[in-house]
Amino acid sequence: MKSILLVGQSNMAGRGFIDEVAPIIDERIMMLRNGRWQMMEEPIHNDRSVAGIGPAASFAKLWLDEHPNETIGLIPCADGGTTIDDWAPSQTLARHAVTEATFAQETSDIIGILWHQGESDSLNQRYQDYDKKLKTLISYFREQLNVPDVPFIVGLLPDYLGKAAFGQSAVEYNQINEALKQVAETTENSYYVTAQDITANPDAIHMNAKSQRLLGMRYYAAFSRQTHINQPLSEEQDAETLLYKEHYTKNEQMYILVSKFSKNEITYEAFIEGMGHLQ
Predict the structure, then answer these.
(1) CB–CB of 130/137 below 8 Å?
(2) Which of 7, 55, 123, 193 has the smallest number of CB atoms closer than 10 Å to its CB?
């Protein structure tokens, strides 16, 4: 089994509205929760009650398309509203991520680290030493997890920041983007992905669900091609075909039924009827 460590702040944890996109459901995508691998269901993170769609599910789906006989696990460790200082190696978040990833390594091989963070540092000239702090964090993760060559993929910040609502304070996002690019361009096996054409929720700070799906595709492109992604992908226009299944396995159908019943989306009678059709 392979696994991916997810770190950063809220746009990695995901705040896209769950009901705005179709679910990505595949029994070969797992997530680490309470020390156990379980079949992925979004939201993957539970850092806040408002957690929603992030980029990891679409990344995992595209990875499976190229590795159909394997399984991938997601290790959710992002935390909303956090700064690069909150992610210093001496602080709780980085140490917690290492603990979770180390636990995951007992049953999986970590093949990548996905990072999206910087909104909370896009003010008061915090960009000035952002690159040094992120490089320190990358080294810390690689050393602590004994994965010196693991790819580290960073997402750039979108240009809707600094204008309105909760995003209006992030006026130095361009400077943070330059720092992110500098880190990716000067750190071995590190790549950045563009946020061009990414759009926001009404709060003007969090990416909407559709954009998160596209961002995950860009993360995977950077990972698989081992290069920076400077512009939107041509295949994004086929996202509906690439990311969503037409047919589910029996196990996946059972999982969907259990989930719907547990969330009071269907009656018990409908649940039993659905299960009967799977026999």
Answers:
(1) no
(2) 123
For 247, counting Cβ atoms within 10 Å of its Cβ (0-12 exposed, 13-18 middle, 19+ buried), the class is: exposed
pTM score: 0.96
The neighbour count for residue 200, using CB atoms within 10 Å, is 22
pLDDT in tens, 63-75: 999 999 999 999 9
Q: What is the CA radius of gyration of the chain?
A: 19
**pLDDT tens per residue across span 189-244:** 999 999 999 999 999 999 999 999 999 999 999 999 999 999 999 999 999 999 99
Q: How many CB atoms lie within 10 A of CB 136?
A: 15
Say if strands 152-155 and 109-116 run parallel, antiparallel, or are unpaired.
Answer: parallel
d(CA 88, CA 95): 9
Q: Which residues contact 102 (CB under 8 A, 6 or more apart)?
A: 144, 145
CB 44 within 8 A of CB 74: yes
Region for residue 171 given its phi and psi (left: phi exceeds 0; alpha: psi -120 to 50; beta: otherwise)? alpha
